[in-house]
Write a structure and sequence with these properties.
Number of helices of chain A: 8
Shape of chain B: globular
Number of helices of chain B: 6
Strand order of the largest sheet of chain A: 3-4-6-7-8-9
Largest interface: A-B, 48 and 54 residues
Order of helices and strands of chain B: HHHEEEEEHHHE
Strand order of the largest sheet of chain B: 3-4-5-6
Low-confidence stretches of chain A: 1-36, 361-369
Order of helices and strands of chain A: HEEEEEEEEEEEHHEHHHHH
Low-confidence stretches of chain B: 1-29
Oligomer: heterodimer
Number of domains of chain B: 1
Helix content of chain B: 25-40%
Shape of chain A: globular
Distance between the termini of chain A: 61 Å
Largest sheet of chain B: 4 strands, antiparallel
Structural class of chain A: alpha+beta
Strand content of chain B: 5-15%
Largest sheet of chain A: 6 strands, antiparallel
Structural class of chain B: alpha+beta
Mean pLDDT of chain A: 87
Radius of gyration of chain A: 21 Å
Number of domains of chain A: 2
Mean pLDDT of chain B: 83
Radius of gyration of chain B: 16 Å
């Protein structure tokens, strides 16, 4: 293994390098431990073997495979993404809690990332023991997609000059997907609602042939949704289109981890937009972020104290962290190397125009009955 | 002496547990608070954790070394409190040839291609240590290689890729034991991230 003479970013470190070095020097650890947790799942060696395509040559997806498109897409450095899911025959998603859908064992989902060409396709599957994660990197002529190792792939496809897309490690898959109660992040009542937000950053019209919430309910693939959600297509309740788009973006890009529950509950910080709350309750972002102090201090920005500082985007910690790709500061902390400039502009405008010191105690973000 | 130091330096490479967290402030170490006494119900778990911490070499990086009568030895008054906040260090030497990393005499500051990392305060101090962490956060930190399981990456030489293979019971035991050691207020400096190489 060769190392450049100049220092490289932490992102460039081959994962496990230091462990390897340590092991080589020392023979690693001598203390006996019990067996590792669970029986290891072995992902299929190729994308072809995951069953996405019925015809590999024409890339025709298998019968029963549903194309879908969340209305608030996750920022992935500008990747064009295509998503599919497939439920085992005769099964359905339990949606009694509209914010935390339960998927049957055997559910499979795929997400294809494309820059100048196909880069990777991620695959998750609901096993009896929990969710399983794998990623497949496409070769240059897109004739094959092979399993990426546990540690990911640092150099996949060039995004733009000097910036190369990285396939995440399986640990990082878990970091995002298992941070909150919802492990499938783009398949929710809000994300699949037919009331799509035209102002969502990087939004796309519903692709031809894609399913939405209405379709899934009609086909009884989603069952148990409360009447309050099925009566009208769910949408973010906000006083302005700008607020609606901002809350949606934060929910999709930050609300997977920042749910106010689970491991990060001590932060009392939630950016996920929930449907299952009283009509007079504020949206979590409004209740926990607007003019609420952050526990993080942005280096060189002593004036940035509050998560969202009403009227002052540059004094908002959320803005500063969205605008950074310093590994110590950036948010999200993984999965992106480029700032989402379109979304950053949207959030800054929202803070400047729509958030006032009283915003967190007014009707902004309150669910409409 | 040199040989002893080499041995210690080598053993320090198997530093254990947790990442490098905290912001740079001028906080000084304070005398250790009395250790929490484990309840009888978790005494066995704590004992197991103590055994694992001792055997996995956590001390080698997370307790600063000082020069003693027999050469470098861990300063047990700073047990597992990480890189001392009051220890000023000059810039690290530049790597030469294949020698790409260096370490401070305390074994708590490490320099390499990633930048400079400082070992974390593992004591249960609520402001500067793991006092507010949950057992689950600790486990996820080790399993995912990220601070509190979901933040920035842990930095070398923390060998989390090895320790992620420990089972839940053992990781919980380690955390349970760390809750019983004396809390030491010591705000470890932020790591210094090396700038990306040209063209990145």
């Amino acid at each position: 293994m060769r190392f450049p003479r100049s220092r490289v970013s932490v992102r460039d470190l081959p994962t496990g390098l230091w462990l390897t070095l340590t092991a080589a020097l020392l023979g690693v650890v001598t203390v006996a431990t019990s067996a590792p947790p669970g029986a290891p799942w072995e992902p299929p060696a190729t994308l072809q073997e995951t069953g996405l395509y019925a015809d590999w040559a024409t890339k025709t997806v298998a019968p029963g495979t549903l194309l879908f498109s969340p209305q608030y897409p996750l920022w992935s450095d500008g990747a064009t993404k295509t998503r599919w899911m497939r439920l085992p025959k005769g099964t359905f998603i339990d949606a009694r809690n509209p914010d935390v859908w339960r998927f049957p064992v055997g559910t499979r989902l795929w997400k294809e990332f494309r820059f100048s060409r196909r880069a990777e396709t991620r695959f998750i599957e609901r096993g009896p023991e929990g969710w399983r994660f794998a990623a497949y990197a496409w070769n240059a002529d897109e004739t094959a997609a092979t399993l990426v190792g546990e540690n990911g792939l640092r150099r996949c496809v060039e995004i733009r000059e000097g910036v190369v897309h990285a396939v995440p490690s399986r640990a990082d898959c878990r970091v995002c997907h298992e941070a909150g109660p919802v492990h499938v992040l783009g398949v929710t009542a809000l994300q699949l609602s037919s009331a799509r937000d035209p102002n969502a950053p990087h939004a796309e019209p519903l692709p031809e042939g894609a399913v939405d919430l209405d379709t899934l309910v009609a086909r009884r693939l989603v069952r148990g949704l409360p009447a309050s959600v099925t009566a009208t297509p769910p949408r973010i309740s906000a006083p302005t289109p700008l607020s609606r788009a901002a809350l949606g973006y934060l929910s999709a890009n930050c609300g997977g981890c920042h749910t106010g529950t689970g491991e990060l509950s001590s932060l009392s910080f939630a950016l996920n937009y929930t449907l299952n709350r009283r009509a007079d309750q504020l949206a979590p972002a409004m209740a926990t972020a607007v003019d609420k102090p952050s526990k993080f201090r942005v280096p060189g920005m002593p004036e940035a104290i509050n998560r969202l500082c009403s009227g002052h985007p540059d004094a908002s910690v959320v803005v500063q962290r969205m605008a950074s790709r310093n590994p110590l500061v950036q948010m999200p902390p993984l999965g992106t190397q480029l700032v989402d400039e379109e979304a950053l502009a949207l959030i800054k405008r929202w803070i400047a125009e729509d958030l006032t010191p009283s915003a967190s105690s007014t009707a902004a973000g309150v669910r409409q009955p | 002496m040199m040989r002893a130091r080499q041995i210690v330096a080598t053993s320090a490479l198997i530093a254990v547990v947790a990442g490098i967290a905290g912001a740079r402030v001028g906080a000084q170490e304070k005398p250790a608070a009395p250790a929490a006494k484990p309840a009888a119900s978790n005494a066995a778990q704590v004992a197991r954790g103590k055994y694992l911490v001792a055997g996995h070499g956590c001390n080698d990086c997370h307790t600063p070394y000082k020069m003693g009568d027999n050469g470098p030895e861990p300063d047990m008054t700073r047990f597992l409190s990480g890189h001392p906040a009051d220890m000023a260090l000059p810039p690290p030497p530049q790597p030469v040839g294949p020698w790409i990393a260096s370490v401070s005499a305390s074994f708590t500051a490490w320099s390499g291609p990633w930048g400079i990392s400082y070992t974390a305060n593992l004591t249960p101090d609520k402001e500067t240590g793991l006092g507010t962490w949950t057992s689950q956060q600790f486990m996820d930190t080790i399993r995912n290689g990220r601070v509190q399981g979901h933040g920035r990456q842990l930095l070398p030489p923390m060998p989390w890729p090895a320790y992620k293979n420990m089972n839940d019971a053992d990781l919980k035991a380690v955390f349970a034991y760390l809750r019983t050691i004396p809390a030491i207020k010591n705000k470890v400096p932020d790591p210094v991230i090396a700038p990306p190489p040209p063209g990145k």
